[in-house]
Amino acid sequence: MSDRLVYFNGQHVPESEARVSIFDSSLMFGDMAFEMTRTFNQQPFRLRSHLDRLYASLRLLEIDCGMTIDEMEQVTHETLRLNLPTESADMDWQIMHNVSRGPLSIYKTAFPEDLRPTVSVNCWPLITHNGGFAPNYSSGVDLMIPSQQALPSHLVDMKAKTRSRLHYQMAQLQAARAGGKWPVLLDPDGFLAEGPGWNIFLVRKGVLYTPEPRNILCGVTRGTIIELAQDAGIEVREANLGHYEALMAEELFCASTSFCLVHAATFEGQRVGEGAPGPVFSQLLESWNRLVNLDIVAQANEYAHRLPAWEAQHLEGTPVGTK
Ligand SMILES: Cc1ncc(COP(=O)(O)O)c(C=O)c1O
After folding, report:
1. Chain CA centroid to CA 178, Å
2. Which of 75, 151, 233, 241 could make an SS bond with 245 (beta carbons 3.0 to 4.6 A apart)?
3. Cα(208) to centroid of ligand 1, in Å?
4. C-alpha distances in angstroms, 2 versus 97, 109, 119, 306, 319?
5. Where in the sequence of the chain do the CATH 3.30.470.10 domains occur?
């Protein structure tokens, strides 16, 4: 059992006691907004941007979580502070917010207190995510287009970050079946949308392109990359990009909170550029490292090295503790 604590409906409880009811609307409808933030050097990165997006998603879902955004921010810092001592000082963290409407009212007799939204904030050491991910930084990832499409915003607005994600899961299953590939979903107009947990960028003739914010989640990482590119004098264009544009790209890469950015080695079975990180990607990765004052690839490699022992220790039930 871990020593981690989770903020759950007004109090901090051991992780194993943070349980969502089977009557919760999140389970019935995928009716839950969420966020995933990460730390660099144990400082949350752009937490306020993540919380702004969380509160925008809640507004779309018409959920009042009963906390102001300032209160949520404070609870987030407190939850992280409580969990930091359970790991070594060089551990970075995933911070997850999950907010649902709560149990459906038809089941109210099962709840002695009034029905209320389910609000949780939990922290998880990034060693598992980024340790497992580390080899991708050198090999790159292989992208493919699955038959599963992205949802257009006139059906369900994907700018909200919700747990209603079966189409992403279907795309992942199709890509996994194709031999461990990463799926880029097309929207119903045939334009590149995004991956199941990341945004896509391509480079052509020195210009950085990314899908316009129509049928996609506008990632915090995506926004940061656009800023870094503009600061470096790289031209950035948000555009409708298709299969053709991706095939013609000199560089293709994916962006998301946990891994930040990773290059694509192939797209639809064809090599992208030289199959290695391209010059624009490499420049952006360096700028990212400077921004967060951390070498993210070196950190992932270090986590990969430590991961087997970390997992063994945690499976034995011996917390790693402060070192
Ligand atoms: C569908 C989707 N697109 C893009 C992203 C990237 O967003 P961010 O950079 O804020 O992590 C995510 C993150 O989980 C996502 O789920």
Report:
1. 23
2. 241
3. 19
4. 19, 33, 21, 18, 7
5. 5-125
Q: Which atom of ligand 1 is nearest to the CA of 53?
A: 10
Thinking of the domain 5-125, which architecture would CATH place it in?
2-Layer Sandwich (3.30)
Ligand 1 centroid distance, CA of 209 (Å): 17
Cα–Cα nearest to 244, from 191, 280, 200, 195: 191
Ligand 1 neighbourhood includes 288 CB (under 6 angstroms): no
Write out the H or E segment, with its range, that includes residue 124. strand 118-125
Q: Quick check: CB of 33 below 6 Å from ligand 1? A: no
Pocket residue to mutate for ligand 1, from 46, 187, 257, most atoms within 8 A of Cβ: 257
Atom from ligand 1 closest to the CA of residue 217: 3
Closest CA to 150 of 202, 215, 214: 215
**pLDDT tens string 245-273:** 999 999 999 999 999 999 999 999 999 99
pLDDT digits over 55-99, tens only? 999 999 999 999 999 999 999 999 999 999 999 999 999 999 999
Asked if residues 235 and 206 have their Cβ atoms less than 8 Å apart, the reply is yes
Which residues of the chain form CATH 3.20.10.10? 138-295
CATH architecture of the domain with range 138-295: Alpha-Beta Barrel (3.20)
